[in-house]
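Fold description:
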Amino acid sequence: MNELFNNTEVAFSLKSDSELERAYFLFKLIKSEPLVKIGTAVTKFALKSSLPVEGLIRSTVFDHFCGGVSETDCMPIIERMHEKKVYSVLDYSVEGKEEEAQFDAVLDKTLSLISFVNEKDAMPFAVFKPTGFGRFELYRKITEGEALNKEEEKEWERVVERFEKVAKACYERNECLLVDAEESWMQKAADDLLEDLMEKYNKEKVIIFSTLQLYRHDRLDYLKGLHQRAKKKGFKIGMKLVRGAYMEKERERAEENKYQDPICATKEDTDKNFNDVLKYMFDNIEDMAIFCGTHNEESSYLLMDLIEKAKIDKSDDRLWFGQLYGMSDNISFNLADQGFNVAKYLPFGPVKDVMPYLIRRAEENTSVAGQTNRELDLISKEKKRRKL
């Protein structure tokens, strides 16, 4: 069983030789922290100065990690992956907006995407980020118990309305909704809002999924508390499980503001926390649905083992594996080949607007050296296999 993710023929079955070469080149670059720092600085400057670099970005890092500039642009990739039984989660990855008109535009885009994906079997989920619908500072104030002024109260009502509109649209179409997690100092406001929506829309089955970032050591206790409330009120819990994406930022802020670091002390602690939460959710699968969003092979094997030992159907719609497009194809395509439910997060949007997402992706990969080395080893293995 634990040799499954070494099968590069299945993993890279959709990649041409030239796409494989490009992937190798990109991960080699990402492996070097100085090159990533220089590259991101130069890219930011070039885009700010309106230099003609979008074509170069599009043909390299963008096309490797993103599906396209629009949802229709993504369709060839979505259809090719679906032929291999890998589903897609279309993720409009435009970040860092701060104005009401922009939040309304993201809402409209999300609603149009819900209609778009609902007509296609290849896309069983919609997704958005909380800060796509409201100002970060507003979530922070609510999370940290600060009073809102009258203007901010109205602003928060509009945020709640946006969440409600999207949740209702998904419920009416029987489409599942994944909502991403962000920094700990804004997350409670989003958690509370999503709990209300789960109570309303997850009565019969899970439609609304929140996200647990499991580099946070408090998340298992939070989940257990949520589970008790869900049992009392009669609703089901949907959770996407991830390790987390804001570690340096979290640690710096905790140190600056003299509060306990919310992040697990070591990577081993994070891995244990992730697996403990995964086991807790699986043990209570009658009350829950799991979207196991991980690039970690051991955690993926763990969920496979749990499913097989419990003799649950591999295609049970309460159990999903998920990875990001452009990474860990050895997990995604081999799991799908075995009959498990697998979805790839497929970011898209105008090249310039998606750059903050791509820069974060490159920086995260630089900080996880083992992941990048694994990608390079697998690509090398597949190149050799094809030559033979």
Remarks:
- The mean pLDDT is 93.
- The beta strands are 87-92, 125-128, 176-179, 208-213, 237-242, 288-293, 319-324, 342-348.
- The chain has 16 helices and eight strands.
- The CA atoms of residues 87 and 121 lie 8 Å apart.
